[in-house]
Amino acid sequence: MASRSDGNEIRLTRVCDAPVQAVWDAWTVPEQAARWWGPRGFTITTHSKDLRPGGTWRYTLAEYLEDTATGRPTFVINRTFEAPRARVFEAWTRPELLARWLPPAGSSMRFLRADLAVGKSTLFAITGEHGTMHVRAEYLAIEAPERLVYAQQFVDEHEQPAAAPGAEVWPTMLLNTVLFTEEGPTRTRVTLTTEPHGPATAAEVAAFVAERSGMTAGWTGSLDVLEALLAAS
User: 156-162 long-range CB contacts below 8 Å, 24 or more apart?
Assistant: First the structure.
């Protein structure tokens, strides 16, 4: 049962048929909290949990939505950053900043074309231990500092469609929608939604669904670097 005590607080009360210590552990032990905390359908990755007054709990929630308005599965990941919304948005839209945090760990990224504007596209190369891959991103919406929409595709150095590295089957194009929500003057929540874009076979959609856990790991690593970059700036 919930009761509202004042204009700034919502109080929830629940009686659990379990010992006090067991309930306490369910709230405070990260491995246990990960099994129930957050909205239904989400997974949670704890980065740090400082259990004391004034301490912070840093975690990432990732959601596997079964369907969208297009009838296709999506991948969703969220992260809250201790930085103003304008600065976080800038980190997603300035090529020199993107190159510092977006590539996977152990990789480097360079822009071959940096036309980051609506109706235009960027072309970048990511080089790692398994070689170099090229990605083209076409920007469909840039609404500073609230929303960013772009379609991305693996290509070769001549911008011809190319197979996704390490995947026999993969959607030709993915649509990414990034929302920037202000949670305070110096706190911003980023929500990234990715889904197959354009024609995609059932096998390609199935491959996308199967890779969502890998996407969680990849994006978590990149967002960790972004968090450090924002903290240092």
Answer: 157/125, 159/123, 159/134, 162/133, 162/134
Name the residue with tokens 């889904």: 195
Peptide bond into 145 cis (omega under 30): yes
- The topology under which CATH files domain 66-232 is Alpha-D-Glucose-1,6-Bisphosphate; Chain A, domain 4 (3.30.530)
Confidence band, pLDDT 50/70/90 cuts, at residue 67: low
- Percent with pLDDT over 70 in the chain: 90
Contact between residue 113 and residue 159 where contact means Cβ atoms under 8 Å apart: no
- Is there a contact between 153 and 172 (Cβ–Cβ < 8 Å)? yes
Higher pLDDT, 67 or 179: 179
pLDDT digits 0-9 by tens, 132-146: 999 999 999 999 999
Please report the pLDDT score of residue 2 as a whole number: 46
Dump the DSSP string for 49-85: E--STT--EEEEEEEEES--TTSS-EEEEEEEESS-H
Q: What is the rounded CA–CA span in Å between residue 44 and residue 28?
A: 14
The CA angle 25-26-31, to the nearest 5 degrees, is: 95
Instruction: Tokens 């990715």: give the residue.
Output: 194
The predicted model scores a pTM of 0.74
> What are the backbone angles phi and psi of residue 98, rounded to the nearest 5°?
-55, -40
Model confidence band, residue 42 (pLDDT cutoffs 50, 70, 90): low
Measured CA to CA in angstroms, residue 77 lies from 7, 47, 59, 223, 233 at distances of 30, 15, 11, 10, 24
